[in-house]
Structure prediction request, 144 residues.
Amino acid sequence: MRAKHGTERPADTPTRTGNGPWQPADVRRAIRRAVTRRCLDRGTDYDETALADALLVASEQASNAVLHGGGVTGFTVVADDAGIRISVSDRNDGLPVTMPRFDAEGRRRIGGRGWSIVRRLSADVRIVPLPGGGKRITALVATR
Prediction:
């Protein structure tokens, strides 16, 4: 998809956003860079659990943007004292929904758990409508 649409990778700094579309792997790479930079600056080890949670949250946010939001139109990753803050923007104005585990006939659904995962692993989640349409979802994964 990247070659077909001529999409460039995001800038080296994980706190920048720009024109998309991007893939979930781009957001995960930005998280690793932000956490690595933060640990190097402070001379500390990273919180492996928080990093794993942040990578999963980012994957779910970006995948949901691709599947339900018309693609990832921007993202920001910041590692600070509060934790790892992941913001993902898409083109859809609709709010995320949690799907029931079973359909009307009692069959187990495949998928539909991404929003639940984001909410469960995040200390704080905020949804902001964007001026040109779409939304930005920011999730904070707390570190120790």
